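so the lab meeting is tmrw and i was supposed to have these ready like two days ago... anyway. pasting both below. for each one the top line is the aa sequence and the line under it is the structure tokens. i havent really looked at them closely yet so no promises
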Amino acid sequence: MIYLFIKGLISGIIVMVVTETSKRSPALGALIVSLPIVSILGMIWLWQDTKDVNRLAVHSESTFWYVLPSLPMFLVLPRLLHAGINFYVALLVCCVGTAILYALFSFILSKFGVNL
């Protein structure tokens, strides 16, 4: 139970650091959030929990493939906001669009033998 608390605490601290940094410098906050900190922590937690080389390798490769269809969201969101779209509406549009891209990307990759 303490282990779960520590994982949650560390993850929460990262989110707090990003949001507080972004208040002062949006670019620095973006730089911090663009680092694969969550992915690295996820891999560390997965390794600590399972010690399963294959599971970790599949997780890492799948993370790579899932990052690609999520990237357009970071270009679409600012354009929607600059167009005067409400933040929550823009965020919803981006989340739905990203989900569609995930499904489409997974379908296309499956045709090339990559199963996510």
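ok protien two:
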Amino acid sequence: MKNTLTFAAFALAVLLVLFFLSSKRKAPFIPLDDLHKNVTTNAACAECHASGKQAPLKQNHPPKEQCLICHVLKKT
């Protein structure tokens, strides 16, 4: 029983550390400019940020079809 409690405490500690590490990194805001002020869909982002467009995303960027989950429009 003691080993089970020790393992559970260790697992909880690892999960808490991972949670706090991941919550510190925030995605950049969507700029509040004429190009971005009406962005409301992921498809709108892809018009400029898809591969081969004027501002493509880096290769190591997370899933590229879920922009608005991480990025939000900057408030004034």
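from a quick look at the 2nd one: The chain has three helices and no strands. Residues 30 and 36 are 7 Å apart (CA to CA). will dig more after coffe
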